[in-house]
Amino acid sequence: MTLKSMLTGVAVLSLMSGAALAQDRVVNVYNWSDYIDESILEDFTKETGIKVVYDVFDSNEVLETKLLAGGTGYDVVVPTGTFLARQIQAGVFAPLDKSKLSNLSNMWKDIEARVEKYDPGNAHSINYMWGTTGIGYNVEKVKAALGEDAPVNSWDLIFKPENIEKLKECGVHMLDAPAEMIPAALKYSGFDPDSKDPAEIEKAGELLKSIRPSIQKFHSSEYINALANGDICVAIGWSGDVLQARDRAAEADNGVTVEYSIPKEGAQMWFDQMAIPADAPHMEEAHEFLNYIMRPDVAAKASNFVYYANGNKASQEKLNEDVIGDTAIYPDEETVSNLYTTTPYPPKVQRVVTRTWTGVKSGQ
Amino acid sequence: MDEEHIPAPARRTLGGWLLIGVPYLWLLIFFLAPFLIVFKISLSQVAIAIPPYTPTFDLGEGWQAIWDGVTEFSVENYLWLTEDALYWKSYLSSVIIAGISTLLTLLIGYPIAYGMARSPQSLRPTLLMLVILPFWTSFLIRVYAWIGILKNEGLLNQLLLSLGLISEPLTILNTNIAVYIGIVYSYLPFLVLPLYASLERLDGSLLEAAEDLGCPPWKAFWKITVPLSLPGVIAGCFLVFIPAVGEFVIPDLLGGSDTLMIGKTLWSEFFNNRDWPVSSAVAVILLLILVIPIVLFQNQQQKMSENN
């Protein structure tokens, strides 16, 4: 193909897409993988005529790097609270135009109050889902390794060498997420899980290194299948993902029973927030999308599908019993009071955290 | 008469310049400009902003603002690389892994290229096609396929178990062995193709002459074929070694968490630490590590050919 004909082709294409833009309304959404009931997107298009271009990521780091490079073309993105806070500081997001968000009144005040820490005044984001980071385990295999009174509801299961060494044989996975694993180790060591003190972070790293030989893999999504298939017996993972593994195992009827527990010493609570980049090409449509997600029936549909709790109070009466009634998804008051949240690390401390984590993973 | 003859060489020179200019322009746009941008970022500081470093240059702000930015440059990021053993360990380990992989690729690739060059003329296009065929599938998917082959319950272990060669599955996936397998497999065509080209051009009458003069075939191979194919060997080895040093996908998917390679270290600087300046410094040093031996080698080659 000659250069000229290529250029002509490009010109024709851009003319065509220009014409399409004038007619169709579009919203470009960038969300976590396996994190929505896709019929929600179809219903949204049916009701509003706005086409949803849906794209997925699997780590906050990838999302953040794109956002910080600028000009992503996305209209709605879903970072976790700690990442959101730093991104707001960097000027990534547009403040929400709350006059266009009539469904804000459905939101859960308790969750909004907790999100204040990351997004003061909830000015830039709405809560999509929230959850905890705890222990997913294969009931039979853990019993076989550690007996009837295995401490499945305690971090002792992971951080006590005599326990984890016995679990090594049947397989242990850990999230490849330093911002969640280091706070857990800090909490277990008696420090503030949100500590920014390099010396304390390094101590937490020592604890993680001491159990490192028993960890088969550091990965943030493989454990869903591995737990469901019975390939591993313990994973430190995100609540909804472990529950998806539980359901897959139940559906497969393969003799594997997966359970999720929030350790009694305390676990991390996190918030995935929907926000609109400041350079979003479709501001109007993005607001309509957010408002739609905040409708009680839509929020309930989303949670019923992904097994995560949402920040929408009004949706709770529309939730299935196996979601609202499950304390692994909607923990009781006492458990919630035991959950901790963390804040972003300043750059110098971030370096210590990543370096410590590299050390844990590589044994260097 | 003269007037007609004089402009001809001048025109040729202009055409010649244009011809040389195209690759130079290409290098300028796709190598030098990106390199200068990366080099500039490596002298900057981390910032919580878009993009996440400072200073940034905007031509609209005038030369004074740009000059003020230039004075903010520092080599701090390069000094940092010397302070933490992680970096030189990563470089060293990458060079070793790439070196061993290149050697293995050569051991497997040479017989393949030799066999192809010695096969009947009519068969060669088909063989050449077979070497290129894997490129029709995405590189990523081919590396993923190796996960299925190498994992504990994977095809390889099932085969070995059913043959009774092993009693327990071998752990290959998530180790350095899997990384070697991945690199050798992925880069084999890059070595075979230049090697085949130089072996195919080999003048067969030289071997015939050697035979006529009573030279045994293995000696003829060693004394004639190998030296004459050396340019192909070197080109192929560079084509394997250079991308293998900076490889990220293969160690990430097939390697274990203790596989240390500079590509992974760079990734974590860039994504986990959001430290674009330090990751740029890592990239600049990586480039130097790769470019210096190539330049030295080329100089030596040039001297050798001049001496000859």
From TrEMBL, chain A:
Keyword Flavoprotein listed: no
Entry keyword annotation includes Transport: yes
Domain of life per record: Bacteria
Gene3D superfamilies referenced in this protein's UniProt entry, alphabetically: Periplasmic binding protein-like II (3.40.190.10)
InterPro entries noted in UniProt: SBP (IPR006059), Sperm_putr-bd (IPR001188)
UniProt-listed CDD domains: PBP2_PotF
Subcellular location: Periplasm
Keywords associated with the record: Periplasm, Signal, Transport
Signal peptide coordinates: 1-22
SUPFAM superfamilies, sorted: Periplasmic binding protein-like II (SSF53850)
Primary location: periplasm
Entry similarity comment: Belongs to the bacterial solute-binding protein PotD/PotF family.
Protein function: Required for the activity of the bacterial periplasmic transport system of putrescine.
PANTHER family per the UniProt record, alphabetical: NORSPERMIDINE SENSOR, SPERMIDINE/PUTRESCINE-BINDING PERIPLASMIC PROTEIN
Name assigned to this protein: Putrescine-binding periplasmic protein
Organism field: Roseibium sediminicola
TrEMBL record, chain B:
Source organism of the structure: Roseibium sediminicola
Main location: membrane
Membrane-spanning residues: 14-37, 91-114, 126-147, 177-199, 220-245, 276-297
Family recorded in the similarity comment: Belongs to the binding-protein-dependent transport system permease family. CysTW subfamily.
Pfam families referenced in this protein's UniProt entry, alphabetically: BPD_transp_1
Annotated InterPro entries: MetI-like, MetI-like_sf
Name by which UniProt lists this protein: ABC transporter permease subunit
Gene3D superfamilies: MetI-like (1.10.3720.10)
Annotated ABC transmembrane type-1 domain residues: 91-297
Keyword Transferase: no
Protein's membrane topology: Multi-pass membrane protein
Localization of this protein: Cell membrane
Keywords assigned by UniProt, alphabetized: Cell membrane, Membrane, Transmembrane, Transmembrane helix, Transport
Record lineage: Bacteria, Pseudomonadati, Pseudomonadota, Alphaproteobacteria, Hyphomicrobiales
